[in-house]
Amino acid sequence: MERFQKLYTAMEKFDPSNGTGWHNYIEWSGLTQLTEVIGLDGMLNEIVLSEVKDHYWEKIVNEDFMLHFFTDLNFMLAQIDDVRNLNVIGTIKAPAEDMSGLVWDGFTFCGYELLDQDHDISALTNCGGFPDVFRNDELSSQGLVLDFGRATQIQSDLKRLYPEEHHADCNIWAIFRRQG
Fold it and tell me: What is the pLDDT of residue 71?
């Protein structure tokens, strides 16, 4: 039995194909190394199934602010007409250990995301940066932290150095993207 729960969500892609929005974001964020944002930030990567329908309740996480995370991949995919231009994300909230070596059928490890307690805003890619905690160039070309130890250090330092900042109180999420 696994010591963690695998969750799924589908997000709109956010990359150079978004035109002016992408260019304005890169200019604002200073994250010039990005080729795409693969994450769970609902402002950058729009949530595809954001409306909770009655028949979702048995297949979603029934916790505050987590209603767009599904527990059943096939059920979630059946709700989407076309996944070709989306990121289908597999994720693990608050992993207790490094997940980079996890073999997850059909998914590839991308890195670690740090989301606020509302599970919506990324402390890494959507808060204007926290230069006292991490440098922009520490993030991958997808806007994630690749090293679990570094992700836990960033999480700890954000909370310690920015106790009044809502988005600095965050959880680590291991991010996997579905292949194909």
Answer: 93
